[in-house]
Amino acid sequence: MATQDAGTPAPTPPTVSPAKAAATVSQLLQTQPEAPFTAIGDRGWRPKEQHDEEESGSERWLVSYADFITLLMVMFMMLYALQLVKNKDVVMSDLVRQDKTQATQNVAAQNTQDEKAAALMENLTALGDNSDVKLSRTAAGVEISLNARLLFASGDARLLPAALPVLKSVTKALKDVPRNNILVQGHTDSQPISNGRFESNWELSSARAGVVVRYLVEHGIEPYRLASMGRADNVPAALGDTPEAYAANRRVTILVQY
After folding, report:
1. 143 with 121: CB under 8 angstroms?
2. What are the pLDDT digits (tens) for 110-164?
3. 162: buried, middle or exposed (CB in 10 Å: 19+, 13-18, 0-12)?
4. How many angstroms separate the CA atoms of 162 and 174, rounded?
Protein backbone atom coordinates (compact mmCIF):
# COMPACT_ATOMS: atom_id res chain seq x y z
CA MET A 1 0.00 0.00 0.00
CA ALA A 2 1.48 3.32 -1.08
CA THR A 3 2.05 5.94 1.53
CA GLN A 4 1.74 9.66 1.04
CA ASP A 5 4.93 11.55 1.17
CA ALA A 6 5.16 13.68 4.24
CA GLY A 7 6.18 16.58 2.13
CA THR A 8 3.11 16.34 -0.15
CA PRO A 9 0.31 18.79 0.83
CA ALA A 10 -3.30 17.37 1.68
CA PRO A 11 -5.99 17.74 -0.99
CA THR A 12 -8.39 20.64 -0.35
CA PRO A 13 -12.23 20.09 -0.51
CA PRO A 14 -14.06 21.65 -3.36
CA THR A 15 -15.41 25.07 -2.60
CA VAL A 16 -19.13 25.99 -3.22
CA SER A 17 -19.98 29.54 -3.90
CA PRO A 18 -22.92 31.13 -1.93
CA ALA A 19 -24.80 31.73 -5.15
CA LYS A 20 -24.62 28.04 -6.06
CA ALA A 21 -25.82 26.99 -2.56
CA ALA A 22 -28.78 29.35 -2.75
CA ALA A 23 -29.67 28.00 -6.17
CA THR A 24 -29.62 24.43 -4.80
CA VAL A 25 -31.97 25.28 -1.89
CA SER A 26 -34.30 27.13 -4.24
CA GLN A 27 -34.41 24.10 -6.56
CA LEU A 28 -35.30 21.81 -3.61
CA LEU A 29 -38.12 24.08 -2.53
CA GLN A 30 -39.50 24.23 -6.04
CA THR A 31 -39.54 20.44 -6.38
CA GLN A 32 -41.86 20.02 -3.20
CA PRO A 33 -43.79 23.29 -2.83
CA GLU A 34 -46.88 21.52 -1.34
CA ALA A 35 -45.05 20.28 1.81
CA PRO A 36 -42.50 22.81 3.01
CA PHE A 37 -40.28 21.65 5.85
CA THR A 38 -41.15 23.76 8.86
CA ALA A 39 -40.31 21.53 11.84
CA ILE A 40 -37.49 19.36 12.98
CA GLY A 41 -38.18 16.22 14.98
CA ASP A 42 -36.40 13.09 16.07
CA ARG A 43 -36.64 11.84 12.49
CA GLY A 44 -35.58 15.03 10.79
CA TRP A 45 -37.72 17.51 8.88
CA ARG A 46 -41.54 17.02 8.92
CA PRO A 47 -44.13 18.50 6.63
CA LYS A 48 -46.34 21.32 8.09
CA GLU A 49 -49.60 19.33 7.73
CA GLN A 50 -48.15 16.37 9.65
CA HIS A 51 -46.91 18.74 12.34
CA ASP A 52 -50.35 20.38 12.76
CA GLU A 53 -52.13 17.00 12.87
CA GLU A 54 -49.78 15.73 15.58
CA GLU A 55 -50.29 18.89 17.66
CA SER A 56 -54.10 18.59 17.28
CA GLY A 57 -54.06 14.92 18.23
CA SER A 58 -51.97 15.60 21.33
CA GLU A 59 -54.76 17.89 22.77
CA ARG A 60 -57.75 15.65 22.07
CA TRP A 61 -57.58 14.21 25.60
CA LEU A 62 -58.70 17.61 26.93
CA VAL A 63 -62.13 17.12 25.31
CA SER A 64 -62.63 13.75 27.02
CA TYR A 65 -61.37 15.16 30.32
CA ALA A 66 -63.78 18.09 30.15
CA ASP A 67 -66.69 15.73 29.40
CA PHE A 68 -65.69 13.55 32.33
CA ILE A 69 -65.55 16.52 34.72
CA THR A 70 -68.96 17.74 33.48
CA LEU A 71 -70.51 14.32 34.09
CA LEU A 72 -69.04 14.22 37.59
CA MET A 73 -70.44 17.65 38.37
CA VAL A 74 -73.90 16.65 37.13
CA MET A 75 -73.77 13.45 39.16
CA PHE A 76 -72.85 15.26 42.38
CA MET A 77 -75.55 17.86 41.78
CA MET A 78 -78.12 15.09 41.38
CA LEU A 79 -76.90 13.40 44.57
CA TYR A 80 -77.13 16.73 46.43
CA ALA A 81 -80.66 17.34 45.13
CA LEU A 82 -81.74 13.84 46.16
CA GLN A 83 -80.30 14.40 49.64
CA LEU A 84 -82.21 17.67 49.96
CA VAL A 85 -85.44 15.96 48.97
CA LYS A 86 -84.74 13.15 51.42
CA ASN A 87 -84.03 15.58 54.26
CA LYS A 88 -87.17 17.55 53.43
CA ASP A 89 -89.25 14.40 53.51
CA VAL A 90 -87.72 13.47 56.87
CA VAL A 91 -88.42 16.93 58.30
CA MET A 92 -91.99 16.92 57.01
CA SER A 93 -92.52 13.45 58.41
CA ASP A 94 -91.21 14.56 61.81
CA LEU A 95 -93.44 17.64 61.77
CA VAL A 96 -96.50 15.60 60.88
CA ARG A 97 -95.67 13.09 63.61
CA GLN A 98 -95.14 15.88 66.14
CA ASP A 99 -98.42 17.52 65.15
CA LYS A 100 -100.26 14.25 65.57
CA THR A 101 -98.59 13.63 68.92
CA GLN A 102 -99.35 17.16 70.10
CA ALA A 103 -102.94 16.88 68.95
CA THR A 104 -103.32 13.57 70.77
CA GLN A 105 -101.82 15.07 73.92
CA ASN A 106 -104.08 18.12 73.67
CA VAL A 107 -107.14 15.93 73.30
CA ALA A 108 -106.06 13.77 76.23
CA ALA A 109 -105.39 16.85 78.38
CA GLN A 110 -108.73 18.37 77.42
CA ASN A 111 -110.52 15.14 78.26
CA THR A 112 -108.74 15.04 81.62
CA GLN A 113 -109.73 18.62 82.35
CA ASP A 114 -113.33 17.94 81.37
CA GLU A 115 -113.42 14.93 83.65
CA LYS A 116 -111.99 16.91 86.57
CA ALA A 117 -114.39 19.79 85.96
CA ALA A 118 -117.34 17.42 85.76
CA ALA A 119 -116.25 15.72 88.99
CA LEU A 120 -115.90 19.08 90.75
CA MET A 121 -119.29 20.23 89.51
CA GLU A 122 -120.81 16.98 90.75
CA ASN A 123 -119.20 17.41 94.18
CA LEU A 124 -120.67 20.90 94.37
CA THR A 125 -124.11 19.88 93.18
CA ALA A 126 -125.53 20.09 96.68
CA LEU A 127 -124.62 23.77 96.81
CA GLY A 128 -126.63 24.42 93.68
CA ASP A 129 -129.80 24.28 95.74
CA ASN A 130 -128.71 27.46 97.49
CA SER A 131 -129.80 30.53 95.53
CA ASP A 132 -126.77 32.43 96.80
CA VAL A 133 -124.36 29.94 95.16
CA LYS A 134 -123.91 29.68 91.40
CA LEU A 135 -121.73 27.16 89.53
CA SER A 136 -120.57 27.70 85.96
CA ARG A 137 -118.01 26.42 83.46
CA THR A 138 -115.82 29.07 81.83
CA ALA A 139 -112.91 29.01 79.42
CA ALA A 140 -110.54 29.28 82.40
CA GLY A 141 -112.13 26.61 84.60
CA VAL A 142 -114.96 26.09 87.07
CA GLU A 143 -116.27 29.21 88.80
CA ILE A 144 -118.07 29.18 92.14
CA SER A 145 -119.89 32.45 92.78
CA LEU A 146 -120.93 33.17 96.39
CA ASN A 147 -123.27 36.08 97.05
CA ALA A 148 -121.79 38.52 99.55
CA ARG A 149 -124.93 38.54 101.70
CA LEU A 150 -124.25 34.86 102.43
CA LEU A 151 -120.72 35.62 103.61
CA PHE A 152 -120.55 39.16 105.02
CA ALA A 153 -122.60 41.90 106.55
CA SER A 154 -123.00 45.10 104.54
CA GLY A 155 -119.76 47.06 104.38
CA ASP A 156 -117.90 44.41 106.42
CA ALA A 157 -115.28 41.72 105.66
CA ARG A 158 -115.85 39.33 108.56
CA LEU A 159 -117.41 35.94 107.79
CA LEU A 160 -120.94 35.33 109.02
CA PRO A 161 -121.77 32.04 110.78
CA ALA A 162 -124.08 31.08 107.89
CA ALA A 163 -121.09 31.18 105.53
CA LEU A 164 -119.16 28.44 107.31
CA PRO A 165 -121.12 25.37 106.07
CA VAL A 166 -120.94 26.61 102.48
CA LEU A 167 -117.22 27.29 102.65
CA LYS A 168 -116.68 23.91 104.30
CA SER A 169 -118.37 22.14 101.36
CA VAL A 170 -116.35 24.20 98.89
CA THR A 171 -113.11 23.33 100.70
CA LYS A 172 -113.91 19.64 100.64
CA ALA A 173 -114.56 19.73 96.89
CA LEU A 174 -111.36 21.69 96.21
CA LYS A 175 -109.26 19.06 97.98
CA ASP A 176 -110.20 16.59 95.25
CA VAL A 177 -108.34 18.70 92.63
CA PRO A 178 -104.98 19.10 94.42
CA ARG A 179 -102.94 20.40 91.48
CA ASN A 180 -105.24 23.16 90.25
CA ASN A 181 -104.65 26.83 91.01
CA ILE A 182 -107.46 28.73 92.70
CA LEU A 183 -108.15 32.43 92.19
CA VAL A 184 -110.43 34.16 94.71
CA GLN A 185 -111.86 37.52 93.59
CA GLY A 186 -113.89 40.01 95.59
CA HIS A 187 -116.55 42.11 93.82
CA THR A 188 -118.72 44.99 95.01
CA ASP A 189 -121.52 47.10 93.57
CA SER A 190 -120.94 50.57 92.16
CA GLN A 191 -122.15 52.46 95.23
CA PRO A 192 -119.23 54.27 96.88
CA ILE A 193 -118.24 53.28 100.38
CA SER A 194 -116.32 55.16 103.01
CA ASN A 195 -116.26 54.06 106.61
CA GLY A 196 -113.79 53.64 109.40
CA ARG A 197 -112.31 50.43 107.94
CA PHE A 198 -112.52 50.82 104.14
CA GLU A 199 -112.03 53.99 102.18
CA SER A 200 -113.32 52.55 98.86
CA ASN A 201 -114.71 49.45 97.21
CA TRP A 202 -111.15 48.46 96.29
CA GLU A 203 -110.18 47.92 99.91
CA LEU A 204 -113.48 46.20 100.69
CA SER A 205 -113.33 43.76 97.75
CA SER A 206 -109.66 42.94 98.44
CA ALA A 207 -110.32 42.34 102.13
CA ARG A 208 -113.25 40.00 101.43
CA ALA A 209 -111.18 37.95 98.94
CA GLY A 210 -108.33 37.74 101.44
CA VAL A 211 -110.65 36.51 104.19
CA VAL A 212 -111.94 33.66 101.99
CA VAL A 213 -108.38 32.71 101.03
CA ARG A 214 -107.35 32.64 104.68
CA TYR A 215 -110.28 30.34 105.49
CA LEU A 216 -109.32 27.92 102.71
CA VAL A 217 -105.70 27.81 103.87
CA GLU A 218 -106.72 27.22 107.47
CA HIS A 219 -108.88 24.28 106.36
CA GLY A 220 -106.35 22.35 104.33
CA ILE A 221 -105.95 24.01 100.89
CA GLU A 222 -102.26 24.42 99.95
CA PRO A 223 -101.27 28.11 100.08
CA TYR A 224 -99.23 27.95 96.85
CA ARG A 225 -102.40 27.16 94.91
CA LEU A 226 -104.24 30.27 96.08
CA ALA A 227 -104.33 33.91 95.00
CA SER A 228 -106.69 36.72 95.93
CA MET A 229 -107.73 39.80 94.00
CA GLY A 230 -110.01 42.76 94.65
CA ARG A 231 -111.97 43.87 91.56
CA ALA A 232 -114.30 46.45 93.18
CA ASP A 233 -117.21 47.12 90.77
CA ASN A 234 -115.23 46.67 87.54
CA VAL A 235 -116.60 43.21 86.61
CA PRO A 236 -120.34 43.42 87.24
CA ALA A 237 -122.51 40.33 87.06
CA ALA A 238 -125.60 42.41 86.28
CA LEU A 239 -126.06 45.84 84.72
CA GLY A 240 -128.29 48.58 86.07
CA ASP A 241 -128.83 50.67 89.14
CA THR A 242 -131.56 48.54 90.68
CA PRO A 243 -131.33 46.86 94.09
CA GLU A 244 -131.37 43.49 92.35
CA ALA A 245 -128.36 44.42 90.20
CA TYR A 246 -126.48 45.75 93.22
CA ALA A 247 -127.17 42.52 95.13
CA ALA A 248 -125.98 40.36 92.21
CA ASN A 249 -122.75 42.33 91.86
CA ARG A 250 -121.78 41.99 95.54
CA ARG A 251 -120.12 38.59 95.49
CA VAL A 252 -116.95 36.51 95.93
CA THR A 253 -115.94 34.18 93.11
CA ILE A 254 -113.68 31.14 93.48
CA LEU A 255 -112.19 30.15 90.13
CA VAL A 256 -110.64 26.67 89.91
CA GLN A 257 -108.31 27.07 86.97
CA TYR A 258 -107.68 24.41 84.30
Report:
1. no
2. 666 777 777 788 878 777 677 888 888 888 888 999 999 999 998 999 999 999 9
3. exposed
4. 20
